[in-house]
């Protein structure tokens, strides 16, 4: 992209909304040519208030151009415009393709088979385990894992893909000159070092704005062949991603959970609406590509008494008192056994003095 093209694209994206910009591009053929359109064409494409804004370059445009040029000079930094030969075809087929894609990392991942893995920012211990295990298995099968670099399920999904030595794409809701949330800065560094990709449609300097995160979810859905929802409350951004995936003609998968868990209700709602219930990564793979089931992993034996306690727990959160009643174990002995199981990764301690058994992938 030449300096003149960069300036034109940045001015266009900062002056009008995406729909108006696409109308202007269709009329002019390029971002530079947009600013050569006759007044009559602009009057046809833009309402009067937007027309007056368009005529005046934004005050911060020169600063933004300088910042973009410096950023693009760094290795691995790319800016892709709508209409570029390398622009992802799957995004072009969506209702609202971004005008610009800011890319940091290996942009070739945009052409690979991809799956979105999304869910709660505050998952249960089992939900985090499931996100990591599903992403790891799907990445080993050759899928690039797409998620949003948020806390919770998103982070676990990226980590699972990286643990498998696979590829992952993070679609973020800020400019790429910052990482949000800051707690995931180390994960972002690891992702890039492993040959992953971080992507945004927002210009450098775009701060954390709540409205941008639901909007970026359409890119997570649009880049992927399918969308797996691990855990989600009924009012959840993950359900927005699932709806956008359906609108884009993608498959939607949901992992069921406990009927007592608020974090499972969003997945149950999706299943009632037609999402495919999945219990293993193999279910996803078979639905998408008809692959044959892999050999079952070797299972490590659990001592008989511990297994009896796990069986008494079930998979729903349970209090110490309820578990004492089910198992007949005295409180001191039961607490010691739960601590041992917790250290072995078999049981998670939840808020409210609850315990939950953790499935093994």
From TrEMBL:
InterPro entries xrefs: DprA, DprA_WH, DrpA_SLOG, WH-like_DNA-bd_sf
Q: Which organism is it from?
A: Pelomonas margarita
Domain called DprA winged helix: residue spans: 293-353
Name of this chain's protein? DNA-processing protein DprA
Give a Pfam family name: DNA_processg_A
What residue range is the signal peptide? none
User: Which protein family is named in the record?
Assistant: Belongs to the DprA/Smf family.
Give the PANTHER family listed for this entry: PROTEIN SMF
- Where the record annotates domain Smf/DprA SLOG, the positions are 80-288
